[in-house]
User: What shape does this take?
Amino acid sequence: MGAQRETMAGEPADKGLAGEPAGEDLGGERADEGLAGGSADGDLAGGSADGDLGGERPPAGPRVARSRWRGAAPRAVRLLRHEWSLAALGAVALAVLMTWPTLRHPASTIPQDTGDPTLQAWQVAWGGHALLTEPWNLWHSNTFFPERYTYAYSDTLLGYAPFGMFGAGPEAAVVRYNLLYVLVHALAFFGAYVLCRQLGAGRAGAAVAGAAFGYAPWKLAQAGHLHVLSMGGIALALAMLARGHGWSLRDGYRPERARPGWAVAGWLTAAWQVSIGFGIGLPFVYVLALLCLGTLAGYGISRWRRGVWPVFPRQLLVADLAGGLTFAAVTLLLAAPYFEVVARHPSGRRTVEQIAMFSPPLRGFLVAPPESWLWGERHAAAREGLGFAVEMTLLPGVVLVGLAAAGLFLSAWRIRHRVALAAAVLVSVALAAGSTLFGDGRPGYVTLMEHLPGWDALRTPGRLVLWTTLLLGVLAAGALTVRQEDARPVRWWQRPARLVLVVPLLLVLLEGVNRTPHAEVPPQPAALRGLTGPVLVLPSEGTREYHVMLWSTDGFPDLVNGGASFVPPSQDRLRAVSTAFPDPQAVAELRAAGIRTVVVLTSYVPGTVWQDVPGRPVSGPGVRVEQRSDGIVYHLE
Assistant: This one.
């Protein structure tokens, strides 16, 4: 019809994510089409509809269905063949491979250990259960009875609550966790890939950045921390915001490429990222704030130099105001329960001494964790001198660092952008070093802790290495992308040479190959099935608390049990009382606290302060004892 074919985003179909050809790989391959690619047909059948109401009616029955199918099938094929569809599917397939054997026994094993992962499996399950049943009580979980706001005792993973709406019980919670564990790796790869493509990198460079962000060696030490691994939304939100504002490293700000819808999507994705947890989300909030201030400063400088304000589409301004306010509102609403917890339990506030315990030395950025297949044994001696190796083995990847260093001298990015990226890498390393920088973290992490709201809730500075990894990935992507003006048409005999671009990708992935153990999840004891709360489960200590939380997904009865980075006074007191159970005085105090059931898991009490409880006589009135195969249930009637 003579009209130019357009993508779903309204751009010409031969343009890349940045709005124009996004540059070429070292082999000279151009970027794929726009976000949706292809063209939209005039109607479902691919032809034009007769607008005359009195005209001939279209054929009915199977012929219409076949016609519609003929029009829909090519569109589906084009969508599946598009770069972003292939990147997403490839990211998932790669995640299954790189996290194997997570999905070999998804209902009975869990990555790393049965500590934090079982806690987080409960968190996802509780979020879904609460939103389906009593959303007004979301923050008052079934654990740590009789305390309030207990869901905010740790990072909540609330953004995964929709997953928690499917299935019930401990086994479903474990399967759900394992699926999320695989998907967060896929999202990290995909997010970094599309971010670098938006910035103007070729496919090879973007793939290397995605592989580094998804499978950096330091992430292997965090296999038991789903909230730390859940960082793909950061890169994806930045990609959407850059696209929405028509900005790339290649071409700078191009207002004609602005897409307000993408800007809104970026702000919403950022809000979702924060909803997963503030441990990773809070630094992201401040990064977005700095980017906004930098944008305003850039506009001011342009106004001063040119005498006029740069063009800023009105629709984009409205989109930013709506998206930004939504992001701010979500952040504040999610922060309110945490401030309430700190007000109720001041002992939960982090101190400089606690930060020092988790602050890595600078050499920690060159050391890999033992879970690394390639570097684990080779770095064993280096790890011995680290006080808390899990949080201090922060190697982003030897190949990644080498490619990023090359990107400082040979890159598709402009020199000023390379310098800015290198400076940002140094800042991120300085902050990730915590209190070891300059001896006391001032200026640095401790300074932020003393002046930025909420920063004192973060106790593990080393996790900021995720920003180091992302920035190094962008530098590396520039090194693997040629300048547009240097691009040359690729001859047929030159195409096999492009296979060399696979080598950096394979080397980066090789450093991410894991030796992560997969532990058997303790099955739910029969003594805990079908109980109504409030319940106290003995023994009540250590990692077993996380197991009890996981088992409580069978009906979510109120529990005294619960695990967090601090112990509320009420739980401490009830634990002390329970050591004398079933002494009449202990029964009276537990009953006065509202507890109606005490369960003693006989196979777990040996070696604990509760090991004599099963053999003690019940002398007080109103206590009914029920023997079960693996425990004793005391009903305090």
